[in-house]
Design brief:
The structure holds two protein chains of two kinds.
Chain A lengths: L15 H27 L14 E6 L9 H10 L13 E8 L5 E7 L7 H5 L5 E3 L5 E3 L9 H5 L6 E2 L18 E2 L5 H4 L6 H8 L5 E5 L6 H8 L2 E2 L11 E4 L2
Parallel strand pairs in A: 1-10
Antiparallel strand pairs in A: 1-8, 2-3, 4-5, 6-7, 9-10
Chain B lengths: L12 H27 L14 H16 L1 H7 L10 H21 L7 H6 L6 H24 L7 H24 L12 H27 L6 H31 L4 H10 L2 H23 L7 H28 L8 E5 L13 H24 L12
The chains are: A alpha+beta, B mainly alpha.
């Protein structure tokens, strides 16, 4: 009589120990996966890697291409950074359209004015706590955690590029923290740059077909912006202050 | 003969009325600060164009006057003027009280006053604000030590060197305060090395005016004798300081008028700028400088305690006008980004920025003044700051 054949465990069946092991791994995986995915989405440059001073981000604005009636860069900025878009004297405006008229010739210009991301930023010099700082890649930012809201940087900025948050803010973009009582300004869309995207205003300008704004690395001689700067006459606003701005204007 | 200092009695109805009034204003100032903190600066008259408002006018006045008021003590211990020696402790007390009041206003006007600990633990040493944190706290410590050497008999021997240190420190401190504005390269109203020495001379004038006011009031209200010789000396000194401050103001404006790129700004602040030229000419120059000089130098009026008080009060009001013109007027004039171009934008480029102080700002500013007064009132009751008599005849 044949002894009943020993039936081995089916290969897919798990011991309790294996089950716990795999289960734990699965749970861990579930917990980590979204983070990993987000990490991939969020960082063109890995988070562990510091911003490099080999790069200097800059912007070139061709005022000949900038249209007087167009406000697309401003609305794109408000949309991206969740600004209200209000125009009261207490509302934040990170980028604004300026209309200029030469008092002698009568020639008019239209251009976006924003933080010029100076190499020698006066706002960083005067900030008592170091909340205003310049990142290695030249982007001038405000650390919301140590800004005490003294507004000395606003007094120091030659471009009136900074705004003070006068009231509570709601509906923030998690990438762009803001807060009542702190000073803020154009971040050059640093959260987008770190994902290898262009600033929202530059993208909007291109989408409108104006292409008046070129964004790129001023340190890379082969970048589009560097080639333009090498080829055409450029203006730095308040060049007399010798701040070496990262935003340059063509056609003024 | 040793000087007999004594606490004031501080039991009269007048004393408690004064303490109650200043206490109430201090509390109103604190309530205003809470209100501003809770709602944000939206409830003030300040905007993204006028970023420093009336609280800064009061705060900077108090801080500048605080350093200047110490001069009375310095004249005694640094320059050895015997007549000023009895006046010295009150001078130190006023310096500490006014600095405390001014700093309180400055701090409570911050967007994030709750981050005081951040301001005290994170430093950017290139910032004159950060350096001022050390200059102000150091001033408290040095003046406190100075008062100790003056008021503790065993320590009297050290009052000379400590007084000298305090004198040097206060000069550096006011340099720091003036440089808050002097280092603002972007703005036409400021950006001048002249502002540091100018603020020092202004502090002489503001501080002495406050000192005279408090001295006359304290002696009148406490019924102690105050002689004419002391007051005549202080009064003559005030004439010199007010005139010197006016001289610096004149040089500052004349220099600016000579520079083509500054002429539009000067035209604004001296002529066409609405409230600012009025405050400058009527407030700062006429009522705040010329009128007090005339009163104090007048052979009859200059002898009356009431008129001397009035003149000192005018200097203080003129000082506030000067701070308003300097701080608010300097911001009201638009930044010139593109010289030779007419500018306009949704962010108020190219236009004069309006400003109307709100009630909470006014209360916060006055609260700082009142807080200083409360400190003085309590201190003169608890400690021996005031000589029993300042009558040289007795």
């Amino acid at each position: 009589m044949n002894e009943p054949e020993h039936v081995p465990d089916p290969p897919e069946a798990m011991s309790r120990r294996q089950f716990i092991g795999w289960g734990a791994a699965a749970v861990a995986g579930l917990a980590i996966a979204p983070g990993v995915t987000l990490f991939d989405l969020a960082h063109g440059r890995p988070a562990a890697q510091a911003a490099s001073n080999k790069v200097r981000w800059g912007m070139l604005i061709d005022t000949n291409q900038c249209s007087a009636g167009c406000n697309d860069c401003v609305t794109a900025c408000s949309r991206e950074n969740h600004l209200s878009g209000g125009l009261a004297p207490t509302d934040s405006q990170w980028v604004r359209k300026m209309e200029l008229k030469d008092l002698r010739s009568g020639k008019t210009h239209s251009l976006p004015m924003l933080c010029q991301h100076c190499e020698h930023p006066p706002c960083v010099d005067v900030c008592p706590t170091g909340a205003s700082f310049k990142r290695a890649d030249g982007i001038v930012l405000v650390d919301r955690h140590i800004c005490i809201g003294c507004r000395y940087c606003m007094m120091a900025c030659p471009y009136k590029a900074r705004s003070f948050v006068h009231a509570d803010v709601t509906g923030q973009n998690p990438d762009v923290p803001r807060g009542k009582g702190c000073v803020e300004s154009c971040t050059l869309c640093v959260h987008r740059i770190d994902r290898d995207q262009k600033p929202a205003c530059v993208e909007a300008c291109a989408a409108a077909g104006h292409n008046a704004m070129i964004f790129g690395d001023l340190n890379d001689p082969h970048s589009e912006i560097s080639k333009h700067i090498a080829a055409y006459a450029m203006t730095q606003v308040r060049a007399d202050l010798a701040l070496n701005t990262a935003v340059r204007y063509q056609g003024l | 003969m040793p000087i007999a200092y004594r606490e004031i009695e501080g039991q009269s109805r007048g004393y408690y009325a004064l303490l109650g009034a200043f206490g109430a204003v201090t509390l109103a100032g604190l309530a205003s600060a809470y209100y501003m903190e809770h709602h944000g600066h939206i409830v003030t008259g300040m905007t993204n164009q006028i970023v420093w408002g009336l609280p800064h006018v009061f705060a900077v006045f108090l801080i500048v006057a605080a350093s200047g008021v110490l001069n009375v003590a310095s004249i005694a211990s640094v320059f050895g003027e015997k007549l000023y020696k009895p006046l010295a402790p009150l001078s130190g007390l006023l310096a500490i009280a006014m600095l405390a009041g001014g700093l309180a206003v400055l701090m409570l006007d911050l967007g994030r006053a709750d981050r005081l600990i951040v301001a005290l633990t994170y430093y950017n040493f290139k910032s004159i604000f950060a350096l001022n944190v050390f200059l102000y706290t150091g001033f408290f410590a040095i003046v406190a030590a100075y008062l100790w050497t003056m008021m503790e008999r065993r320590m009297n021997g050290y009052s000379g060197p400590v007084g000298l240190a305090a004198f040097i420190w206060r000069l550096v401190l006011t340099t720091g305060t003036g440089s808050i504005f002097g280092f603002l390269v972007a703005r036409q109203a400021y950006d001048s090395a002249l502002l540091a020495p100018m603020f020092i001379v202004m502090s002489f004038s503001y501080g002495l005016a406050v000192y005279i006011l408090v001295l006359i009031a304290a002696y009148r209200w406490s019924g102690r004798p105050l002689g004419d010789v002391v007051l005549a000396r202080l009064k003559r000194l005030l004439i010199v300081f007010v005139a010197a401050a006016l001289y610096f103001v004149a040089v500052h404006h004349l220099t600016n008028l000579y520079v083509a790129k500054q002429q539009d700004f000067e035209k604004f602040i001296l002529l066409t700028g609405g409230v600012y030229p009025v405050l400058f000419w009527a407030g700062q120059v006429t009522l705040g400088s010329l009128a007090p000089i005339v009163i104090l130098a007048h052979p009859a009026l200059g002898k009356s305690h009431a008129w001397i008080s009035a003149a000192a009060l005018l200097v203080v009001l003129g000082a506030l006008a000067q701070m308003y013109v300097t701080i608010i007027g300097g911001q009201a004039y638009p930044l010139q980004l593109f010289p030779g171009m007419q500018e306009s934008s949704s962010f108020f480029d190219g236009v004069v920025h309006p400003y109307a102080p709100s009630a909470p700002e006014i209360m916060l500013g006055l609260g700082g003044v009142a807080a200083a007064a409360v400190i003085v009132l309590i201190a003169v009751k608890l400690l021996r700051f005031l000589p029993e008599s300042l009558d040289e005849a007795s």
